[in-house]
Write a structure and sequence with these properties.
This protein is of the alpha+beta class. It is built from 19 helices and 33 strands. α11 runs antiparallel to α12. The longest helix is centred in the middle third of the chain and has 21 residues, at 502-522. One of its GO terms (molecular function) is carbohydrate binding.
């Protein structure tokens, strides 16, 4: 912890690691994508940007970039902040748009100096006329100052190019004490290094989610020498006696210079979470020169490579734009926090520690560390997409979490700035690891990871922390009850934190037990496998045969009174959802769930009714009426529901409802497209999977993973396989007769052979091949019903 007035610990942050190329963890695959295709031109960063969350919009950013640089129109909340398309003013350009992290705000101005008066004074109107936002680049005109700002970046360095008017009073502000998104800056210090260099650090004040004050350091270079330094603190300009260094709360510094008309002044800002010296090293490693156009084009090229790992042909231009915008989000929001040389800050214990990622024979770090929101729900989104097309990404995150276990004693749900945050509930990391490991993605200490995951599955593990419950003696996750009773009761009095929802916890713990069992089986831990498989049946304790729903139980074991399956508040017992949705949340044992509903026909009738009732509401919960709350594709718990028909022998209904959901979320304007929290790529990844026609209801965690098939939006989908992991070259999905009306699969072939199954194994996918689908306007109710679920899975569920 860093108490606000603890000067010694702040001094520690200044000097820590001062004694302490560039590897942006791009993927070198044997089969290169078509370099002539500009996938970046099909990405529209403005989609649904009218109501951004702080980390939603990062235009001048590399894939997973430590620097996530973009204009900020709103800076005072975690939600409704960052770049909002409908806002009238740009307040600054800041470099960190992360889960619970922000920092290093800069702003060019001309004329009367207003930096000390704050953003409300020095902000500028801007225009969308001539504005350009692409992956890795943003261009916008500040109309109050007649300044054109252009932004790009490397992994760890933000690169600004400002075209100034003629003026004797042109400034670039470093508002190091600014309030950015999640909370105030507790303390900052900034100083002049030379006539072209500025350096400093900021302490992000702790939040209810990130429980410790957290530093960010920066080192900046200008392309022309400054004429004057102006510094301020607490809204007052500093006297000239010591203008070249300023520290304190609400402090900042600006540089002034004269500019000719249309003169370009460039600024490079490197960041680190370790030290100023590490920030300087990041700049030397990644951006020693000043060629803005070269860096911009290099960013375009890198994004083109990453986006091009999934190629599509056909469909409408709007459908292609939505797909690549979704894919961009899936490769953007969970940012790197380790330096180019592999140093990172560990904040898991009572005092910060500098750690070093192991280096390879080439002297470069073997992986990167990341900052990210919870994996809650990622088993239906990122886990599937990344494991197919970006397996190295999964290795990076698995190493991040395993290191955190070794450093701090728990595998995290979602770390921020090296802190545990205890965001959301349960242990969704186990589905991430199980999917990775069972798909052969295991360049990390799997035994150590399993040890940590097993610890999480008992009293004292991370499941015992309810949402944002930071106490070391946490118990609000209810694992004592889960171990003793097989369910977590609602209505408990001795609880703290958020999301105290026993019914959701029970259902998620049961699924997570199954995921751990699958990993244990692959690793030969058969006693653990039997134990966790037995516990994975605990979802049955919540089934009320009289109501036909999953219902919360009280401390006394009775059903909670006043049950309403459409109740979305947590008094209903479910986390950010309701019983109508969570009653289908048994992704690991759909055969058993369907039996509880009374068999396949009754289950199909019930599930289909959910979709029919919610279709008029766009498959999105309603804030005005409960009538549409039967599905919700704006939040994670319901995002697998359309694919569940496959398990009841009605794959044509999966094909129908997946298409209809995609149509409801097809908006590519700034005023729609996600409709709710995009959650650092999770909804983007889900959109990609639904568009290309592949999914995994169990999250890909089975001992022998398999993909479920539905009808893609495109005539041809090509997934380029990473040959460091998988032996094949490409996997292609080709459709014949595809159209908006032709949504139903009539027949299929797999590598030239007739295929009557609505699934295929991951082991066949990684060899490469072709799946061909003939589509039509009416359902073929005989296709896709053979041998499903696969025998290798159903045997686990007996």
């Amino acid at each position: 912890m860093i108490p606000e007035n603890n000067r010694l610990q702040r001094i520690f942050f200044i000097f820590i690691g001062l004694i302490l190329t560039c590897r942006t963890f791009g993927m070198d695959i044997c089969d290169k994508v078509d370099e002539d295709k500009n996938y970046i031109d099909l990405v529209n960063p403005f989609v649904d940007s009218h109501r951004s969350r702080w980390f939603f919009f990062s235009s001048a950013c590399r894939p997973f970039g430590m620097v996530s640089l973009s204009p900020d129109t709103d800076t005072e909340h975690s939600w409704g902040s960052g770049y909002l398309y409908g806002s009238k003013q740009i307040r600054c350009f800041s470099h960190v748009h992360n889960w619970q992290m922000s920092g290093v705000a800069v702003m060019p101005t001309v004329g009367e100096f207003k930096g000390h008066l704050g953003m409300n004074a020095y902000q500028s109107a801007f225009t969308h006329d001539g504005e350009i936002a692409k992956p890795g680049y943003h261009k916008v005109r500040l109309t109050d100052y007649d300044i054109t700002a252009e932004l790009t970046s490397t992994m760890r360095v933000g690169f600004h190019c400002y075209t100034f008017p003629k003026s004797d009073s042109s400034y670039i502000l470093f508002d190091t004490g600014a309030f950015l998104a999640h909370g105030p800056t507790a303390y900052s210090e900034v100083w002049k290094v030379s006539d072209k260099e500025i350096a400093g650090w900021e302490i992000m004040e702790r939040t209810g989610r990130r429980p410790k004050d957290t530093p960010v350091y920066f080192y900046a270079q200008l392309s022309k020498p400054m004429d004057e330094i102006v510094s301020w603190r607490e809204g007052r300009l500093e006297p000239d006696s010591n203008p070249e260094r300023i520290s304190g709360k609400n402090a900042g510094m600006a540089v002034r210079f004269k500019t000719r008309n249309d003169e370009k002044v460039m600024l490079k800002v490197a960041i680190s979470y370790v030290s100023v010296e590490q920030a300087r090293k990041n700049m030397l490693a990644e951006l020693p020169g000043w060629d803005f156009e070269q860096v911009k084009q290099a960013s375009f090229s890198e994004w083109n490579d990453w986006l091009g790992r999934i190629e599509v042909e056909g469909g409408s231009r709007e459908q292609q734009i939505k797909l690549y915008t979704d894919l961009w989000h899936a490769l953007l929001g969970r940012h790197v926090v380790s330096d180019a040389d592999g140093h990172y800050m560990d904040m898991t214990s009572d005092f910060p520690r500098i750690r070093q990622i192991p280096l390879g024979e080439d002297g470069k770090p073997l992986y990167n560390h990341h900052n990210f929101d919870a994996w809650w729900g990622s088993h239906w989104s990122l886990n599937i997409l990344w494991s197919m097309a970006y397996p190295e990404v999964m290795d990076n995150f698995c190493n991040t979490m395993t290191d955190m276990y070794q450093n701090g004693g728990l595998i995290p749900r979602g770390p921020s700035g090296g802190n545990y945050t205890y965001v959301m509930i349960g242990d969704p990391a186990v589905s991430f690891f199980a999917s990775a490991y069972n798909k052969g993605i295991c360049n990390y200490d799997a035994e150590l990871a399993y040890e940590g995951l097993r610890k999480n599955a008992f009293v004292g593990g991370i499941r015992d922390h309810a949402g944002y419950e930071h106490s070391k003696t946490a118990h609000s996750g209810g694992m004592k009850y889960y171990e003793e009773r097989g369910y977590v009761p609602d209505g408990r009095k001795d609880v703290e934190g958020m999301h105290i929802t026993g019914a959701s916890m029970t259902l998620e713990y049961a699924y997570q037990d199954w995921c751990l069992a699958q990993m244990a089986k692959t690793m030969g831990k058969l006693q653990d496998y039997e134990f966790f498989m037995k516990r994975s049946k605990n979802y049955r304790h919540l089934w009320n045969p009289e109501s036909g729903y999953m219902q919360p139980r009280g401390i006394d074991g009775d059903w909670l009174p006043c049950f309403d399956p459409l109740e979305l508040t947590e008094k209903g017992g479910f986390c950010e959802s309701n019983s109508a949705i969570y009653s289908h949340y048994v992704p690991h044992d759909m055969t058993g769930l369907i039996e509880l509903y009374g068999g396949a026909d009754k289950y199909i009738e019930r599930l289909n009714a959910n979709f029919e009732k919610s279709e008029p509401y766009g498959f999105f919960r309603s804030n005005k009426t409960k009538e549409g709350n039967w599905t919700d594709y704006g939040n994670q718990p319901g995002t697998g529901m359309a694919h569940l028909f496959n398990y009841a022998g009605a794959p044509w209904l999966t094909q129908k409802w997946v298409r209809k959901v995609k149509a409801a979320y097809s908006d590519v304007t700034p005023y729609g497209g996600y409709r709710d929290d995009e959650d650092q790529g999770q909804m983007g990844a889900l959109g990609v999977l639904m568009a290309i026609g592949l999914f995994e209801v169990d999250g890909g965690c089975a001992e022998k993973p398999f993909y479920e098939i539905t009808s893609p939006l495109f005539d041809k989908v090509t997934i380029h396989l990473d040959n460091r992991y998988y032996p094949g070259k490409t996997f292609q999905i080709i459709t014949v007769g595809n159209s908006a009306d032709n949504m139903y699969i009539q027949r299929a072939s797999f590598n030239g052979k007739k295929w009557n199954k609505c699934w295929f194994y991951h082991e066949d996918f990684i060899k490469g091949g072709t799946l061909e689908l003939q589509l039509g306007t009416t359902p073929n109710k005989k296709w896709g019903i053979e041998e499903f679920p696969p025998s290798s899975v159903s045997s686990d569920k007996d």
